[in-house]
UniProtKB/TrEMBL annotation:
InterPro entries documented for this protein: ClpP/crotonase-like_dom_sf (IPR029045), Pept_S49_pIV (IPR004634), Peptidase_S49 (IPR002142), S49_SppA_67K_type_N (IPR047217), S49_SppA_C (IPR047272)
Organism field: Acidithiobacillus marinus
Gene3D superfamilies (alphabetical): 2-enoyl-CoA Hydratase, Chain A, domain 1, 6.20.330.10
Lineage start: Bacteria, Pseudomonadati, Pseudomonadota, Acidithiobacillia, Acidithiobacillales
Name of the molecule in the record: Signal peptide peptidase SppA
Keywords tagged on the record: Hydrolase, Membrane, Protease, Serine protease, Transmembrane, Transmembrane helix
Transmembrane residue ranges: 21-42
Database matches in NCBIfam families: SppA_67K
GO biological process, one term: signal peptide processing
Entry GO terms, CC: membrane
Listed GO MF terms: serine-type peptidase activity
Pfam families according to UniProt: Peptidase_S49
Length: 605
């Protein structure tokens, strides 16, 4: 009879070894995280001296971000998965600004070989810091093996711009394209019903259409025009090229390349986009020459080490302005993962600030496309509680301050946005997937009974009835009306005017300012000035306290992002973002959440 149990014995042994393997892997991950954390801690505590007559060597590796988690999982992910490398925007800008006043730093070398870009708003913040550095009479040298929209706006601020002889400066007009999945869904028997309020509320379109609607095209062209204008002005200021000449280059690049017989490097020189053709060694030799040194004896310091040389690592005491990150899609619950802001940890973080005596005011650093309306409302109520406790709150919008993010921002005393911020997008929608067609194709039936005859049974495995569809639309209409009322009261605007300017339309920061939807144009500097005034603080008698992203209850959630990033090279360009956004929307709908959300990937690389 023993042979009858052999399969179960083998299965038991297999499960035993799998369990041991998983436990050993987790142990190794914990040990690696501890080692990384201790290494980072001791290296940050060690005093760093800046060499005299030094070159600040900026070699950013990864993408720009507004905030990061301080969790050990995040540090581990950064170490073992290079694609996940991030550059904290604040640290980069502060390093450049500090170097502008530092007599030890004479030249800034900008090596963009491993830079993955960021949003236009982020890039312009770095470009402005580079302009300030150069305005102090100091030199900037820039190099990249290829230039595109993202890295070129930084290189354009340099005195000397290097490009390899076989390289190209691929500067093109901005565009906004999405993947549309309706045709695919229909082929597999899936229908996504969308209930929305707002003519321009285009978040549902990738799942309900095969192309971009006319309304979405109108909306997107407006903020793209603002982006291109701001981009052209930054290039013009750095290189002395007129915006008209830049537009000719960007729009007629194929014809210009033909005129130069494919010599893209020489074309870039003739158009004054770059100053010299040379590789990485030529770039380094040129920096050494201007410093009067040999290449091998050049005194350099990386921006990360340079930041550690002047940054204060210990928490200071005294009056504080807490800076809270709202960075990612808004979701309910407590599970934090990359790209989302969970309402639970964020609300707890804000509520703790009410009871911290040193915290006199709060700046919300918002970079979010919105998300679940209940999550947005929960965070907004926490903001209102801060104000009721006598602590002013000011919002500083970065790349995005749209939809649900704008909803929560209306709870603050004031709102500031960058000219290129995508803001407002006052609209609401509900998604409802219907898998009944797919089940039919697979030969799967769906049937059952209810406790009460003829009771509605809303399910993704059966089509919605007409009355159910009307009910969903009624809910959306109600929440949209509530959203409009919130904005009207917070911004002291007539409801009719807010209704006219809403309609789910995303506005550039410039347009939002002219419509009265934000208080002023600018970034953290303007927000800080405003909150200092509101809190009656004296200059030099307070400090900014930047909080990390709050930690949720899912310490291994980022492993999903790691897996998605590993899959990314095999996916068509742009599909990673589209699939990630679709997954987040459908995952958090839990049948079926109400969203105030703007799906957009504003990253330039």
């Amino acid at each position: 009879m023993r042979f009858l149990f052999l399969p179960f014995i083998w299965l038991g042994k297999l499960l035993h070894w799998i369990r041991l393997g998983v436990l050993n892997l987790l142990t190794l991950l914990v040990l690696a995280a501890i080692i990384i954390g201790l290494t980072g801690y001791f290296s940050s505590q060690k005093a760093i001296s800046v060499p005299d007559k030094a070159v600040l060597w900026l070699e950013p590796q990864g993408s720009l971000v507004y905030s990061r988690s301080n969790s050990w999982e995040n540090h581990l992910l950064q170490k073992i998965h290079p694609r996940q490398n991030t550059i904290l925007l604040r640290h980069l800008v502060e390093s450049i600004d500090h170097a502008a006043k530092d007599p030890h730093i004479r030249v800034l070398a900008l090596d963009l070989s491993k830079f993955n870009g960021g949003s236009l708003t982020q890039l312009l913040s770095v470009a402005q810091a580079l302009q300030h550095f150069r305005a102090q009479g100091k030199l900037i040298y820039a190099y990249a093996p290829e230039y595109s929209n993202g890295n070129y706006v930084l290189a354009a601020q340099a005195n000397e711009v290097f490009l390899p002889p076989l390289g190209m400066a691929l500067v093109t007009p901005f565009s906004d394209h999405h993947l549309y999945f309706k045709g695919l869904l229909e082929k597999i028997g899936v229908t996504v019903s969308a209930f929305r309020q707002g003519k321009y509320k285009s978040a549902v379109e990738p799942l309900t259409r095969t192309d971009m609607s006319v309304a979405a095209q109108e909306e997107n062209r407006a903020w793209l025009a603002t982006w291109w204008q701001s981009y052209g002005q930054a290039i013009s200021k750095g290189r002395g090229i007129s915006t008209a000449d830049l537009q000719i280059y960007a729009t007629q690049l194929p014809q210009l390349l033909q005129q130069y017989q494919g010599n893209a490097g020489q074309l870039a020189v003739s158009q004054k986009l770059v100053t010299q053709l040379g590789d990485a060694e030529d770039f380094r030799n040129a920096v050494a020459k201007v410093m009067g040194e040999k290449s091998k004896k050049l005194h350099t310091i990386s921006y990360r080490r340079y930041y550690q040389s002047f940054a204060k690592h210990e928490h200071e005491h005294g009056p504080e302005i807490a800076v809270v990150p709202i960075d990612g899609m808004l979701v309910p619950g407590n599970n934090e993962e990359q790209g989302v802001v969970a309402s639970g940890p964020t609300v707890r973080q804000l509520d703790r600030l009410r009871h911290e005596e040193d915290v006199k005011a709060v700046i919300l650093q918002v970079n979010s496309p919105g998300g679940d309306v209940n999550a947005a409302n929960a965070i907004r109520r926490a903001v209102v509680r801060l104000r009721e406790a006598g602590k002013p709150v000011v919002v500083s919008m970065g790349t995005l301050g749209a939809s649900g993010a704008y909803w929560l921002s209306t709870g603050a005393d004031r709102i500031y946005a960058e000219p290129t911020t995508i803001a407002a997008d006052i609209g609401v929608f509900v998604l409802f997937p219907d898998f009944s067609g797919l089940l039919q194709k697979l030969g799967i039936g769906y049937s059952g009974v209810s406790s009460v005859p003829d009771a509605p049974s809303i399910s993704p495995y059966a089509p919605l009835s007409k009355s159910e569809q009307q009910a969903f639309q009624a809910v959306v209409n109600h929440i949209y009306g509530h959203f409009v009322d919130l904005v009207a009261k917070a911004r002291h605007l007539p409801v009719a005017q807010v209704e006219k300017d809403s309609q789910g339309r995303a506005w550039s920061g410039v347009d939002a300012y002219h419509l009265g939807l934000v208080d002023g144009l600018g970034g953290m500097t303007e927000a800080e000035k405003a909150v200092v005034q509101l809190a009656h603080l004296k200059n030099g008698h307070y400090h900014l306290y930047y909080l990390p992203r709050p930690e949720g209850e899912s310490p291994f959630a980022q492993l999903h992002s790691w897996a998605l990033a590993s899959l990314a090279p095999s996916l068509p360009q742009g599909s990673e973002t589209a699939l990630s956004q679709a997954r987040l929307l459908l995952n958090y709908s839990r049948p079926y959440g109400v969203f105030a959300y703007l799906p957009i990937d504003p990253k330039l690389s």
